[in-house]
Amino acid sequence: MNEQELRNLLTQVQNNSLAIDKAVEELRHMPSELLPSAHLDHHRTLRTGLPEAVFGENKTIDHLIEILSAMLQQKNVVLATRISPEKAEEVTGKVEGLTYHDTARLITGNERYCSAGCSRGTVAIATAGTSDMPVAEEARIALELFGHKVKTIYDAGVAGLHRILSQADILQSASVIIVVAGMEGALPSVVAGMVSAPVIAVPTSVGYGTGAGGFSALLGMLNSCAPGLAVVNIDNGFGAACMAAKINMLK
After folding, report:
1. Does the N-terminal or the C-terminal CB of the chain have fewer CB atoms within 10 Å?
2. How far, in Å, CA of 96 to CA of 163, rounded?
3. Are 227 and 191 in contact (CB under 8 A)?
């Protein structure tokens, strides 16, 4: 339950349009719910502005079914990351109301509870290459579930610098920018040198041997000489989305 949902509930009680017992039922699982496999944090959106997400890579199918079924009962968006197609087929086949996004490897649900209109501007997401799209799509879908407007610029790496320069209007009008890149990880520095908005760099594990699974891109981004650039973990599109949402939230 987000802040607006709680305000609506309390207003209904104040106006005598909702019985106290019904309101108590709505709040029964706040702030948390203990399951055999997890301790769900239903209060997180109200505290932080962002919903709890499920890291699904190491969870079993049974655990995902149990957790996501419980989360669907709440007035919060549902988001599970790092879900393989095989797990997704089993889980979505047994739990109604879930959608699998194969490129991003996300399962989502309860989209009607996204925090629409909470953003002060548009988040731009740029990738260096097509191979970086899974990480970028994780960020895009998460941001849209969080209620933020997003514009994407895909396959615009520094090997063809004209590609990112031609998108200057989108970049310069964004309130925050996420830049996703593997290989040497140069694109975030270029973008940060073009704009006044904060830039969040996401290194990816895309690249040959000395790319070292994304560490070369990570170190390049951490050593950037461009001001106003911050870096999240390798392949962490979700983390970048959360940081961008925090920057872009209306207050």
Report:
1. C
2. 42
3. no
As assigned by CATH, the class of the 122-248 domain is alpha beta
The segments of the chain whose pLDDT lies below 50 read: none
Q: Are 5 and 39 in contact (CB under 8 A)?
A: no
| Beta-strand relationship, 39-41 and 32-34 | antiparallel
pTM: 0.86
Place of tokens 């009607």: 112
Task: Report the C-alpha gap between 172 and 196 in whole angstroms.
Answer: 7
Measured CA to CA, the distance from residue 225 to residue 204 in angstroms comes to: 20
Q: Where are the domains of the chain?
A: 3-113, 122-248
At 51, the amino acid letter reads P
Q: Tell me the residue type at 147.
A: G
Whole-angstrom Cα distance, residue 200 to residue 59? 28
Instruction: Report the candidate in 157, 135, 110 with the shortest Cα–Cα distance to residue 2.
Output: 110
